[in-house]
Specification:
heterotrimer, A mainly alpha, B alpha/beta, C mainly alpha, A: MetI-like fold, two-stranded antiparallel ribbon, 11 helices, about 75% helix, C: mainly alpha, MetI-like fold, 2 strands, globular
Chain lengths: ~270, ~250, ~290
């Protein structure tokens, strides 16, 4: 009897998810056309395409990656390979957990205070990317650490015993083996960053900017913010355009999810241990 | 009296968890010979090997004291270049551990780490090492395949080749044949006999019979202490200490 | 040469390792810098009373805190049974084939941006709520809780699932050997054994809900009223996160309103810190206790 209850619960959980995705696609697929994806908006966003928003989200993703990946992967390497079990290391772990729990809107406030105002970057792609990258750091650090941890210890011992230094061992053996796991984590982290609205609200997102951003110091349109505004603040906004924009963001996010999953599965098959 | 390959004087090692691993070991390692360190598990043999090439640095040790003289230099000193040391004193472990690379990359790994850039020279050294390990004929046409496609015996010989590519002075083998079938075991034992003019071996054998077969010198360890040391096979035939005799005769182990 | 470049790399890696501490401190510092002036500019009594109307200088944040607490509480009430139930199904009952279908679906939910869920909320949930429950508006705490539940379910499922997997097989086998049915085993042995993990999952779910901005902002109606009766659940309310997000764009930098918004940010920061650190401390303690026992 309990089995059926739990079966029902699982079904009731899964159905809405599939329902939501299906509903969005059904409602919005009709608006997807080449013009929609490649033209700029017109008529106060009520017609035309959403190209600047797509490009803006893309820029923000790249910007986030540029800052978060080197820093995050290096930090993950430090925790996994270099850090000894001291108080400082425990503090670092606590810091990572804490950073992971900070609400996205608080990151927005932080970005506003530090990057937009204090460092005078203004409302810009730069400020928004930096904000998003700090928000993405915990995910990248954790998945890097985990990926490194799954590489067996014996490889490190062998590497050192053959006269390699610690960094050589990491670079030539450990890191390459951990790379698929790291890449998966990076993609998932970037996927989340791409879909976030609150951190870019006051740091870089603009609504009425129907042309492409000219530099990293200019603001930009972005898909999540665009969706938010057109669904809540634009009177007479055609519903098809709203659904169409949502479909685009959904494809962007779930597409990255899919790529990450494929990489993870392929790596598991090709593992040499 | 020729120069000893290694001189241990009162070597003491203690781990962080309080277990005293080595209690004052004093012995000489004879050059160009197979020096056997044998005894029951927990005797400290593996610890000595890990100390000799300073792999023990990767563990949580409390202290290391004493002298470990290699060409007159105490290897326990802080200013020893451990990466260079490990090229001169190589180790083969009890299970074959192929790196997740190709056969060629496994054997050339130490050379690359040492900074060798000349591809032709590396090719030559890899071939030479594989030939010495009697593996060349079996792998010469598939050097670029992953190393884990080899059989257990082949992998262990590759691990040997990997060490030999660096042209070490001393090769330490810690129960190298425990995972191998008798034929592969014989190959490795034969290899040691054939090459001892070139290298000095320290062998931790799998069992007393292997010890007796291979020993040019033999040291019996029990719980971190050196109980008895003998040249040749004398220790197996006429052990001086009762504990050695009991172990050799199979009364414990 | 080689040694030198390696030393530089090692130094860089070490600095990167400590960067998380640096950033955490930076966030705290900037929140304090812009938020603490609120304490000076607004008397504490006013700050913590129940009128939030910034245009007329009423900065009482209680309704906002109340709103956040209410939507979070009810969202966990909904998400907990569904999340744990699904986790139990996946970990203990589902055949391999179904498991391989279920898990990606949960991951899909985790990957849906919250603004998309908010959008569906507006398009579907809000009108439905209004009609079905016969309310003046569908923008309610109820709608917000439903969306928040959806958002926290993946977190709860994955952590609870891990906790269930971690229960040693010997526990289950012992129960069955004593004559318990599979369901009795799950209820009486496996779940209790996994309770620390489930607790951790709930705490992290709470943290997630508390910190969510867009979805709630889009469906809860943005009425900063203290939810002081059960009926308030079916009326519009305002959360802390939604307040910051919707009003920050309109404030003058350096104004009192600006400082108060940052002050709310401090509260959110501290709350989420407490929740997340507690959750990980709880699971860490369980793990060390396990290691001591085994």
């Amino acid at each position: 009897m309990g089995f059926n209850l739990v079966r029902l619960i699982a079904l009731l959980t899964v159905l809405p998810i599939l329902g939501i995705v299906a509903y969005i696609i059904i409602q919005g697929a009709g608006s997807l056309s080449l013009e929609f994806l490649t033209q700029v908006p017109t008529n106060g966003m009520r017609s035309g395409g959403i190209f600047p928003a797509i490009v803006g989200t893309f820029y923000l993703t790249i910007g986030t990656a540029l800052f978060a990946v080197p820093l995050g992967v290096a930090a993950g390497i430090y925790i996994s390979e270099y850090a000894k079990d001291t108080l400082w290391t425990r503090l670092i772990r606590i810091a990572i957990i804490s950073l992971a729990g900070v609400p996205s809107v608080v990151y927005g406030l932080f970005g506003l205070g530090l990057f937009v105002i204090f460092l005078r970057f203004g409302t810009s792609i730069l400020a928004a990317s930096l904000t998003l990258s700090i928000m993405t750091l915990p995910v990248i650090i954790s998945t890097t650490e985990e990926a490194l941890r799954t590489v067996p210890a014996r490889f490190r011992i062998v590497g050192r015993s053959l006269g390699a230094t610690q960094w050589q061992t990491i670079r030539k053996i450990i890191l390459p083996q951990a790379l698929p796991g790291i890449v998966t984590g990076v993609i998932l982290g970037l996927e989340r960053a791409a879909g976030e609205t609150a951190p870019i609200l006051f740091t870089g997102a603009a609504f009425f900017l129907p042309r492409l951003p000219s530099s990293i110091l200019s603001a930009t349109m972005a898909l999540p913010y665009h969706i938010f505004v057109i669904s809540t603040q634009v009177p007479g906004m055609p519903v098809q355009i709203q659904y169409g924009t949502v479909v685009v963001l959904l494809i962007y996010a779930l597409g990255m999810n899919l790529i990450a999953t494929l990489i993870r599965n392929k790596a598991r098959k090709n593992r040499q241990w | 009296m020729s120069e000893k390959a290694l001189i241990l004087r009162n070597l003491r090692v203690q781990y962080l968890d309080g277990m005293e691993s080595l209690r004052g070991i004093t012995l000489d390692v004879e050059p160009h010979a197979i020096n056997v360190f044998f005894g029951p598990a927990g005797g400290g043999k593996s610890t000595i090997l890990r100390t000799i090439n300073r792999l023990i640095d990767l563990d949580d040790i409390k202290q290391m004291e004493g002298e470990l003289l290699f060409h007159g230099k105490n290897l326990l000193d802080a200013d020893v270049d451990v990466t260079e040391l490990r090229r001169k004193i190589g180790v083969v472990f009890s299970r074959p551990i192929p790196l997740p690379l190709t056969i060629y990359q496994n054997v050339s790994f130490g050379l690359e780490a040492a900074g060798e850039k000349d591809k032709k020279k590396m090719d030559q050294q890899v071939e030479k090492a594989l030939k010495q390990a009697t593996l060349w004929d079996e792998v010469y046409d598939r050097l670029n395949e992953p190393a884990n496609t080899l059989s257990g015996g082949q992998q262990q010989r590759m691990c040997l080749a990997r060490v030999m590519a660096l042209e070490p002075e001393i090769i330490m083998l810690d129960e190298p044949t425990s995972a191998l079938d008798p034929i592969s075991t014989a190959k490795i034992e034969q290899f040691m006999q054939d090459t001892k003019e070139k290298y000095t071996f320290i062998l931790v054998p799998n069992n007393v019979s292997q010890a007796a077969r291979m020993a040019d010198t033999a040291a019996f360890f029990l719980q971190g202490e050196l109980i008895e040391y003998g040249v040749g096979k004398s220790i197996f035939v006429t052990p001086k200490d009762k504990r050695t005799q009991d172990y050799v005769e199979g009364r414990f182990g | 040469m080689k040694i030198k470049s390696e030393a530089i790399i090692t130094r860089g890696i070490k600095i990167a390792g400590f960067s998380s501490i640096i950033f955490l401190l930076l966030i705290f510092a900037f929140l304090m810098k812009e938020g603490t002036p609120a304490l000076a500019e607004v008397p504490v009594g006013e700050l913590f009373n129940s009128r939030w109307y910034p245009i007329e200088k009423y900065f009482g944040i209680l309704p906002l805190i109340g709103g956040s607490l209410m939507v979070t509480f009810f969202s966990i009430l909904i998400a907990l049974p569904f999340g744990v139930g699904t986790a139990v199904y996946i970990a203990e009952i589902a055949p391999q084939g179904i498991k391989q279908l279920l898990k990606p679906v949960i991951e899909i939910l985790a990957g849906i941006p919250s603004v998309v869920l908010g959008f569906i909320g507006i398009q579907v949930l809000v009108p439905f709520t209004r009609r079905f429950l016969d309310l003046p508006t569908g923008l309610t705490a109820f709608s917000g809780s439903i969306l928040l539940a959806l958002i926290s379910i993946p977190t709860i499922v994955s952590i609870a699932e891990d906790a269930l997997y971690a229960v040693p097989r010997s526990y289950r086998e012992a129960a069955i050997a004593l004559g318990a049915s599979k369901w009795e085993t799950i209820l009486g042995v496996t779940l209790p054994a996994a309770r620390t993990g489930v607790l951790t999952a709930v705490m992290l779910g709470i943290g997630r809900s508390l910190g969510e901005t867009m979805a709630v902002m889009m469906v809860t109606g943005n009425a900063p009223v203290i939810p002081n009766q059960w009926m308030s659940f079916f009326l519009p309310i305002r959360t802390m996160t939604a307040t910051i997000a919707s009003e920050m764009g309109e404030v003058a930098s350096g104004s009192t309103h600006y400082h108060v918004l940052f002050f709310i940010g401090i509260i959110l920061f501290v709350l989420s810190l407490i929740i997340n650190v507690t959750a990980s401390w709880v699971s860490f303690r369980k793990r060390t206790r396990e290691q001591l026992v085994s």
